[in-house]
From TrEMBL:
It is found in: Golgi apparatus membrane. PANTHER family: CONSERVED OLIGOMERIC GOLGI COMPLEX SUBUNIT 4. Keywords: Golgi apparatus, Membrane, Protein transport, Transport. It is a peripheral membrane protein. One of its GO terms (biological process) is protein transport. InterPro entries: COG4 (IPR048682), COG4_C (IPR048684), COG4_M (IPR013167), COG4_N (IPR048680). GO terms for cellular component: Golgi membrane. This is Conserved oligomeric Golgi complex subunit 4. The keyword Membrane applies. Belongs to the COG4 family. Coiled coil: none annotated.
């Protein structure tokens, strides 16, 4: 409240006349007084805090004064140091510039001296015919001139004149040395003086003629290979053209002539590899390989062409391709074709080995030279020689397929059954032929050839051979079952087996053995693939073809199982009388009837005896172990299925259920005794039916069901269990329905 306001309030108070108004003003004044007193007390309480802070502020001002003084001193020192550093840095820059100029001057002086030494040394070397040293002087001079003098143009007229004089002298000497190197290299190449040729070939690069030197040297070593190849081809031509016997002409060594070309190229590259890489750079080996391969394109293709013409491969492949389209086509003897196949295989194998060697050599060098291996491979494979080899591979594939087909057809045609054998001769003969051809195909070392050969093997197995087996299976089950009563000769008898329907058993065995042979053939060929082919993509491609053999094996196995299923069905009439006896038998037995049944042979014993006679004694000697087990399994399936249906048609009392359980146990034991495979799973539903029918009460079923019998796996559903319980005459429908399963 301001002083003016206080005076005005005092004047107002003096003018008051009302006691009530005076009392209110008095109360307000007292309240105001108390408020002011409280504020004063609060301020007095904070006095010590304020005084303490004032002391701290006073102390801080003293410290700040010290800091200010130190900061001023530090600023002065930094300023002095900075000025000193600037002066020192300026001196250092001046010294560095001076040092650079001195170094540059020394380098120029050194270069002038070395250049003069090169010129003087070049004169002496040329006079003394020391061409290697002369080439080194020229190379050194060119390097000095390129790396220094071009970047430091001299302003000194005398020095410039001297440099130009040196360059002129060097150019004259260089031209003279180039002429000497070219002339001497040509003379050495013409004389086949390899040592001199190598000596002068090394001089091209120091003279800056690396490209020319590489081409000249490659031309030289190529001429050496060409000379040897020409001699071999002429010798081969003389053998083919002179009037000799057919046997002598057949001995013409085309593969040897071609192999010599490969060996000469490989030897030339291996022996000169160090020279090529050191004298002409990392790319030189690739260029040399391509240049040398041109000689293979020339002479190698010539040998292959002459081979194809002399053996009439084109006409032979054409005639084979026309097989079946015309009856007038005279087909070659498969034995003669085999000799061509062996020769073709050897040529293709050697060609593939040569190609792989050259490609590996070029890929390694291309990687080091940062070139494109893919382009090199493409250009290599499109050459004349490789196209000729591909044509030979086509002939080989055609002739190999013909050889396989003809020999397989012949094996089928001369098929015979030897005494005591479970299969006919056709099975072993066919797989021997296919195994032989597949191995031979792998020897070609060509993925294309191998895949085609494996596809042919698979096609023959799935077509001609499978059809031959299928034709022997038609109508056979009935004849085989009818002939079971005819005694068979003892195994190993000298006379052929004449049992009716025996051909069917042999054919079924052929399917089973063929399935095994196909699997063995695939495993064997897979082992060879890893030895012949190293590239992962090649292995995967061949394994994809081999995978088709697994499907063919499964097809043979299916044929065998189908034939055995038909055979099992053909046995149905033999088993029907005993099953009819079971159908007619009553299982609502009295104690006397139950006791009488124990003394008599039951239908189960009769059924086992028939199976023993027909299957075990009659068919087991005629079938392979695997086929016999499958047949027993299928017979058991048929018998069990029929018995299950008949059981559901009958009525049982407890003694009848006991009788059925005893018969089922006997049946399962006898079935298990005649096969190496388990039959309990197949008879599980039937034995569980017998167990249910043998219960004393409906509630006893819970002792065998669910958690109460953890070791028992029920094959019957709850509905089927109730249906079987309903077969008991003693069990009431209400009890069965109330059973919680």
């Amino acid at each position: 409240m301001t002083m003016e306001a206080k005076i005005r309030s005092l004047e107002d108070a003096k003018q008051l006349t009302d006691v009530g108004a005076i009392n209110r003003l008095l109360q307000e004044t007292i309240t105001r007084e108390r408020s002011i007193s409280s504020e004063l007390e609060s301020m007095l309480v904070q006095r010590q805090v304020v005084e303490g802070r004032l002391v701290d502020v006073h102390l801080s001002s003293e410290v700040l004064e010290l800091v200010r003084a130190d900061s001023e001193q530090m600023t002065s020192s930094i300023t002095t140091t900075c000025n000193l550093a600037e002066r020192v840095s300026s001196k250092v820059r001046e010294l560095d510039l001076a040092q650079t100029r001195v170094t540059d001057t020394i380098a120029r002086i050194t270069t002038i001296v070395e250049r003069s030494n090169c010129v003087d040394g070049l004169k002496s070397a040329m006079d003394g015919e020391d061409y290697e040293q002369a080439a080194k002087y020229i190379e050194t001079f060119l390097q000095l001139d390129a790396t220094y003098l071009e970047d430091h143009v001299s302003t000194d007229t005398m020095e410039g004149a001297q440099a130009e004089s040196h360059r002129k002298m060097l150019r004259e000497a260089k031209e003279k040395l180039e002429e000497v190197v070219r002339t001497r290299f040509k003379e050495a190449a013409d004389k086949r003086d390899h040592k001199s040729a190598v000596r002068f070939a090394r001089l091209y690069s120091p003279l800056g003629l690396a490209e020319e030197g590489l081409l000249n040297f490659c031309g030289y070593i190529r001429s050496l290979v060409a000379m040897r190849a020409k001699e071999d081809y002429q010798a081969l031509s003389k053998v083919l053209e002179r009037p000799t016997t057919l046997e002598e002409q057949e001995e013409a060594d085309f593969c040897g002539a071609l192999t010599n070309v490969f060996q000469d190229i490989a030897t030339a590259l291996e022996q000169n590899e160090e020279l090529l890489t050191t004298a002409f750079g990392p790319k030189a080996m690739v260029r040399a390989a391509l240049e040398m391969h041109k000689e293979c394109d020339t002479h190698g293709s010539l040998v292959i062409k002459r081979f194809a013409e002399f053996r009439n491969l084109k006409r032979l492949a054409h005639d084979i391709g026309r097989k079946g389209s015309s009856s007038n086509v005279e087909l070659p003897d498969p034995r003669a074709v085999e000799s061509y196949l062996e020769e073709l295989l050897m040529i293709c194998q050697r060609s593939e080995e040569y190609s792989n060697f050259l490609l590996d050599k070029m890929k390694d060098e291309a990687d080091q030279a940062v070139s494109s291996p893919v382009n090199l491979v493409n250009s290599f494979k499109t050459g004349t020689f490789n196209l000729a080899v591909q044509e030979l591979i086509g002939y080989y594939i055609t002739m190999e397929e013909y050889y396989m087909n003809e020999n397989v057809l012949k094996a089928v045609a001369i098929d015979e059954m030897a005494p005591g054998q479970l299969t006919s001769s056709m099975v072993d003969d066919v797989f021997y032929i296919l195994q032989k051809c597949a191995r031979r195909t792998l020897g070609a070392s060509s993925v294309q050839c191998v895949c085609a050969g494996l596809n042919n093997v698979n096609n023959i197995l799935g077509a001609q051979y499978m059809q031959a087996l299928a034709s022997r299976l038609r109508g056979g089950p009935g004849r085989l079952v009818q002939g079971l009563a005819v005694p068979s000769p003892l195994p190993g008898a000298a006379t052929p087996v004449k049992t009716p329907g025996l051909e069917h058993a042999v054919a079924v065995n052929g399917c089973d053995i063929s399935a095994e042979y196909v699997v063995k053939l695939r495993r064997e060929l897979e082992g060879y693939v890893g030895d012949v082919f190293s590239a992962p993509h090649e292995r995967e491609r061949i394994k994809a073809c081999l995978a088709d053999l697994s499907e063919t094996s499964a097809a043979f196995r299916q044929m065998s199982n189908t034939a055995l299923e038909q055979l099992a069905q053909s046995l149905g009439p033999r088993l029907k009388p005993t099953l009819d006896a079971f159908q007619q038998a009553s299982y609502e037995l009295s104690e006397q009837e139950y006791a009488a049944n124990e003394l008599e042979d039951s239908w189960a014993q009769a059924l086992v005896q028939i199976v023993e006679t027909i299957v075990v004694q009659g068919l087991e000697p005629l079938l392979t172990a695997a086929n016999y087990d499958v047949l027993v399994q299928q017979v058991v399936d048929a018998v069990v299925m029929r018995l299950e249906a008949l059981v559901l048609q009958k009525r049982f009392n407890q003694l009848g259920g006991l009788q059925l359980e005893r018969e089922m146990r006997q049946l399962v034991q006898q079935f298990a005794a005649v096969t190496s495979r388990s039959v309990r799973d197949k008879c599980a539903r039937l034995t569980q039916m017998a167990t249910i029918l043998n219960l004393e009460a409906v509630g006893e079923m819970l002792d065998y069901w669910g958690d109460n019998a953890p070791g028992m796996t029920w094959r019957l559903t709850p509905a089927e269990v109730r249906r079987v319980l309903a077969l008991r005459v003693e069990f009431k429908a209400e009890q069965i329905s109330a059973l919680l399963l």
